[in-house]
Write a structure and sequence with these properties.
Blueprint: H1 14-18, H2 20-33, H3 40-52, E1 57-61, H4 64-75, E2 82-85, H5 92-99, E3 103-106, H6 118-127, E4 129-131, E5 138-140, E6 145-150, H7 162-171, E7 175-179, E8 187-190, E9 195-198, E10 205-209, E11 223-227, H8 230-240, E12 244-246, E13 249-250, H9 261-292, E14 307-308, E15 314-317, H10 321-330, H11 360-366, E16 369-372, H12 380-398
Parallel strand pairs: 2-3, 2-6, 6-7, 7-10
Antiparallel strand pairs: 1-11, 4-5, 5-6, 8-9, 8-14, 10-11, 12-13, 15-16
């Protein structure tokens, strides 16, 4: 590669070119059978992805947003409930909560992992909530509404600290749905169970997105829910398909949230390569860690001993994020920000009454984070050029 050639943030072209024959065969099979919705391709992928996630069931749906929404509904979240999540995530997390009829409320994140801070969750449950004596349910003091669920987000491809979160959930009889939309194949070591567990297998359900840029991406919109609960799986299958138990027999009012056959078939092809792609992402992360180890002013991602991250994103922190991004852009290196405005400060939620200072860790890191190029085909030479450019910026900045 030329030293002046652009380094993309994400390469979605190369893997599709490499798999072109396999992917084209799927399309030919779909048009040859007219099996466009449901059928063997969807069922095969569901079985394969359930096995990959060490879960009993997988329900293919139209998007990661649908996955979170249907999981919450099937788990028992009702109109007027409060669901606790984090302000540092994509808005789809909270959209799904709202679409399930609930109100999102927030706890701050851990400054090292950027995932839900179990200590902040405990403080929220003990300080901001009370147990109603008559019903035994947990209520938010200010909102006078029942708190029924927690949605921890496995952000950037690394699991949240699930032992601590699940212990608190059990104490207060709360539903837990993992937002694993960025964490296909990520693992968490549970001290309680003394074994490694896959994202999406640890709670009532796990929600996955197969948006094209994800570690396992469709060629369009797609998602899935994993669960070990047979009744929930049955309920979610009805929710995605207009509430049908069988054709034209509607047990409940549902949605049009199905995973189509073409995307399922394409995902089955890609799933066979996911382990290799994950190893390549992890190797790239190790190389970034090595290259950045002696670079002043840069905070590299933190991976606790209990985590095996899959590095959907490689996110660093710097003091002058805008300056660094500008410098990298001028050097033909693409970057991203995930995410620049915390959800509690988004215009969409201004009616909730949150303000600056409510979640200081999230607000602090939102000004400092920048996502470097990360994809399986990323080469060490490209990474060296990225880090050299970061060093150049730091050198210039330090003498200003």
């Amino acid at each position: 590669m030329s030293s002046n050639e652009k380094i993309p943030f994400l390469d979605l072209i190369t893997p599709h070119q490499e798999l072109e024959q396999e992917l084209t065969a799927v399309f030919q099979k779909v048009i040859g059978t007219a099996g466009f919705v449901g059928g063997p391709m969807v069922e095969n992928f569901e079985n394969e992805f359930a096995a990959y996630c060490d879960a009993k069931y997988c329900i293919g749906v139209a998007s990661g947003t649908d996955a979170v929404r249907f999981a919450l509904t099937a788990a028992g979240v009702k109109l007027g409930d409060i669901v606790v999540t984090v302000p540092h995530t994509f808005i789809a997390t909270t959209e799904a909560i709202s679409q399930a009829g609930a109100r999102p409320d927030f706890v701050d994140i851990d400054e090292k992992t950027y995932a839900m801070d179990p200590q902040k969750l405990q403080e929220y449950l003990e300080r901001d909530c009370y147990v109603d004596r008559a019903s035994g349910k947990l209520y938010n003091r200010k909102l006078r509404a029942p708190v029924t669920a927690i949605v921890p987000v496995h952000i950037y491809g690394q699991c949240a600290d699930m032992d601590a979160i699940l212990e608190l959930a059990a104490r207060y009889n709360l539903i837990v749905v993992e937002d694993a939309c960025q964490a296909h194949g990520a693992e968490y070591f549970s001290k309680k169970q003394n074994r490694w567990l896959k994202a999406g297998s640890m709670s009532h359900a796990g929600a996955f997105s197969f948006y094209p840029g994800k570690n396992l991406g469709a060629c369009g919109e797609a998602g899935a829910i994993t669960t070990n609960n047979e009744e929930m799986a049955r309920h979610m299958k009805m929710l995605r398909d207009h509430g049908q138990a069988k054709k034209y027999y509607h047990n409940i009012e549902g949605y049009n949230g199905r995973l189509d056959s073409l995307q399922a078939g394409l995902l089955s092809v890609k799933l066979r390569h996911l382990a290799k792609w994950t190893r390549e992402r992890q190797a790239a992360a190790v190389e970034y860690d090595r290259l950045l180890a002696d670079v002043d002013g840069v905070t590299a991602p933190h991976q606790p001993q209990w985590s095996r991250a899959v590095y959907h994103l490689y996110v660093i922190r710097v003091a002058d994020r805008e300056g660094l991004q500008k410098h990298l852009t001028e050097a033909k290196i693409d970057t991203g920000i995930h995410y620049p405005i915390p959800l509690h400060l988004q215009k969409a939620y201004e009616g909730f009454g949150y303000k600056n200072g409510d979640f200081p860790v999230t607000e602090k890191i939102a000004l400092e984070i920048v996502s470097l190029p990360m994809f399986p085909q990323l080469q060490p030479a490209q990474q060296a050029r990225v880090v050299k450019t970061v060093q150049e910026f730091n050198s210039v900045s330090s003498v200003r």
